Each structure stands twice: as C-alpha cells, then as structure tokens.
Amino acid sequence: MARPGHSTAWLPLLVLLFAAGAAAQSGCLSATFTGGRTFLKCNQLPVLGASLHWTYHAGNGTADIAYTIYATVALPGNATSHNTVWQAGPISGGRVSQHSISGPNVQSLQRLDFLSGTSTGASNSRLHRRNLHGVLNGVGWGVLIPLGAMIARYLRVFEAADPAWFYLHIACQISGYALGVAGWGLGLKLGSESKGLTYTTHRSIGIAIFCLATLQVFALFLRPDKKNKYRVYWNAYHHSVGYSVIVLAAVNIFKGLNILKPATGWKTSYVVILATLAGVVLLLEAITWAVVLRRRKRNRAHAGANGTGVQL
C-alpha cells in the first residue's frame, strides 16, 4: 500500500474512504501491510468484502487506521465509540469512480468502539427516510387511489350501495392523497439533500402525479349537479385525470423500486397487489355489465308494459 498522507479529522468520525473493491482476507488478522506496518485491532466489515485495521492511542485520543489507504484520525473528546462508514468503488482512468448508491453501498455503516473493537449496527436515517418515501407513495398513490376508483366505478351500479359508495370513494381518495403528498414532500426533501444526484424521470413523474391529484381534489368542490348540462364534461375530466394518476403512479413506483433496489420481496409484493387489483377489476367489470344490461332490459320491459314503448 502507498501512503497518501497523514491526516487528522476533528469532526465526529465518518471513515468515508473509497477503495478499489479489494476483497477481504480469510480473516482480517492475517492481512499484511507494506513498510512493515502493524495494527493492534481489526474489524471484518459486514459488507463490501472489506476490513478496517487500527491502533488506538488513548494518550492523545487518536487512531492509526488502514483501509487501502493509511491515515490517523482524531477521536473528538477522546470518545472511543463512533459511527463508521466505508465505501468501495470502481477504478476508471486511474481514479476512483462513483460507487453504487444502492444495495451493500447503503448498508455500509456500523458503530465501532476503537478501544474494545466491538461493533454494532448504526442508524441510517437517510435510508429509513427513503424507504418511508417509498412506502407512503406506494400505499397512497399505488393502492388507495386505485381502490377508490374501483369503488366509484363498481359499487355505484348497486342501488343498495348508494350513497355509501360515494363516501367510501372519497375516504379512499382523500387518504391516498394525504399519504401520497406526504411521500412526495419527503421525496423532494431527499432530493434537495442529494446535491449533484437527480433522478429526473422519477422526480418529474412524481410532480405530475401531485399536480393532477391536486386538481382532482379541487374538482370535488366544483362538481356540478347531475342534471347540470356541464356534468358530462366534468365526468370526462374527472375520469381521465383520475386514471392518468393511477397509471403514472404505477410507472413511478416501479421506477422508485429500481432506484431503491430493496429486497426482491418488495417488488414482488407490489406486482402481486397490482395483479390482484387487475383480477378484481376484470371480475367486477363482468358483474357490472351483467347488472347494467339486466337493468336496461327490465326497464325496457317495464316501459313497454306501461305503453310508453317506442313504436317502430
């Protein structure tokens, strides 16, 4: 190993060192170093196949460390327990390129005690907020909004469900909108914290979903009476915007899953949810048309019996 320099860090320790992807030895204690360097302790890091070696100096509160790079860091207040973060990235043109921003690269953190050598999991608040952003949007835009649309389309044909279907529809849409907006706002916050990293398509679709869904909410207050001649135009607008939100939400949720790259089960679960909703839609569509056609036939028969039928 080459020694790039001797540095001292006075901030709370975040060992954010980039490596060329070196694999870990069978045991970190078996590692050897150039120049006859030795270290008293080591920690086999849980991800990225890496290890950290160090010698802690209690007298001046520093630690000599080795990670494909040598350095000396100062432990603030001579505290021995600190969050540590490490990364591994590819080499391109003799320089270290940007590492991955998903999978093990966002799991590479722990709390390390430089005195005892013990380590525990560290909190990754950003990862938690990213996951929360995904869950809020997935449940809000991806489940509740489609469910509310299904209630409006299929329950309203049953006379016994009136006006309960309307209140159920509103409850689902308002709840979905509230969760979706919360997730959308959290996404904007995460984006503002990620300088130089923008998921343009995902962000643009998210903004479009928010705008269209907000129009739907305001449209509720502008809904004309059923007998109003403009009601047909309002219905066309309401349905087209609503279905656009549903389609865009599904597309954006998959884009978000591709960005987060969570465990396979998350994407599989959402696919199962979509497939289930699609199956229910097909079944209810058939039932709805059967009910509508039967009702039309009954109304025509009733009109003919009363002598109000049209003579051809």
UniProtKB/TrEMBL annotation:
Keywords: Electron transport, Iron, Membrane, Metal-binding, Signal, Transmembrane, Transmembrane helix, Transport. Heme b binds at residues 133, 169, 202, 238. It comes from Triticum turgidum subsp. durum. It is found in: Membrane. The lineage of its organism: Eukaryota, Viridiplantae, Streptophyta, Embryophyta, Tracheophyta. SMART domains: B561. Residues 95-293 form the Cytochrome b561 domain. It comes from the Eukaryota. PROSITE patterns: CYTOCHROME_B561 (PS50939). This is Cytochrome b561 domain-containing protein. GO terms for molecular function: metal ion binding. GO terms for cellular component: membrane. May act as a catecholamine-responsive trans-membrane electron transporter. The chain crosses the membrane at residues 132-152, 164-184, 204-222, 234-254, 269-292. Residues 1-24 form the signal peptide. InterPro entries: AIR12_DOMON, Cyt_b561/ferric_Rdtase_TM, UCP037471.
